[in-house]
Design goal:
Layout: H1 14-27, E1 35-41, E2 56-61, E3 64-69, H2 70-79, E4 99-105, H3 109-115, H4 117-122, E5 126-129, H5 137-150, E6 155-160, H6 168-181, E7 184-189, E8 192-200, H7 217-225, E9 229-233, H8 244-254
Parallel strand pairs: 1-4, 1-6, 4-5, 7-9
Antiparallel strand pairs: 2-3, 6-8, 7-8
Length: about 260
């Protein structure tokens, strides 16, 4: 997908414009901000030796427990945020009516996209295919940041599709903290910062400098050092699936 060039005011230098945008973003009440939730699912999952995100896992639905692909289970969990009472009103902020969902596919797009068809028909969301998925995670993160910036979102929540243990409650905590503080928010697990995390629009240009398999961790650490980030302990974020042994171990724990 080719994104339209961003329109910039000729009356401002790039430094002045960034400073102005950041100030306006900080002054805007969270009630008027638009959040883009991005599920990253473009990787080849080479260590898994198969299409990892197409593997079936138990999923709790209105009709009971059934099996669904990892990717559709995660996307549905994010969609549930739109239907749940996040207690945002008690935080003097509105519901997630200003949030949108984006899924980034790549290596296994022909297999994974059909698995999302039913969810998309019930509650439409955007899908982008990363043509440079072979170059590593950074290309997907950069694509997501470019999309968020060009579409005028005020913040972007990044999460990995294979973080199978994340719950709607985990996302709720992140979003509530973002609404409350206006700062960037990241999960803290295994003595480190990581995704899922929420980045404000003023930080999105930093993602263009990433390369290879570098994700957002370096940016998270930079923002934390500047006091611009709040960390939330989310032990469940530490569980992701890299190998078939990882999946078997996690499924055994759920039994």
């Amino acid at each position: 997908m080719t994104l339209p060039p961003a329109q910039k005011s000729a009356a401002l230098t790039s430094t002045e414009q960034t400073s102005t945008e950041q100030t306006l973003a900080e002054q805007a009440p969270c009630s008027s901000k638009r959040l883009l939730i991005v599920v990253l699912a473009a990787g080849e999952s080479q260590r898994f030796e198969g299409v990892k995100l197409a593997q079936l896992i138990p999923s709790l639905s209105a009709t009971g427990i059934s099996e669904h692909a990892i990717i559709s289970t995660h996307v549905e969990r994010v969609q549930q945020l739109y239907c749940q009472d996040l207690d945002l009103e008690r935080q003097e902020t509105p519901s997630l009516q200003h949030a949108s969902l984006l899924v980034i596919l790549g290596a296994h797009q022909p297999i994974l996209q059909p698995l999302l068809a039913e969810l998309h028909s019930r509650q439409p969301f955007d899908i982008l295919v990363n043509p440079q998925w072979q170059t590593g995670l950074a290309s997907s993160v950069s694509l997501a940041a470019s999309y968020a910036k060009e579409q005028g979102f005020d913040a972007m929540l990044l999460t990995l599709a294979d973080q199978v243990a994340l719950s709607a409650e985990d996302y709720r905590q992140l979003i509530l903290m973002w609404h409350k503080t206006g700062k960037e928010v990241a999960a803290h697990y295994l003595d480190d910062l990581g995704v899922p995390a929420i980045f404000n629009a003023s930080t999105l240009p930093l993602f263009t400098h990433l390369s290879g398999d570098r994700g957002a961790k370096s940016i998270l650490k930079q923002q934390a050092q500047q006091g611009a980030l709040v960390a939330i302990t989310l032990p469940s974020a530490a569980i992701d699936i890299d190998t078939q042994a990882d999946l078997a171990s996690w499924l055994a724990l759920k039994e």
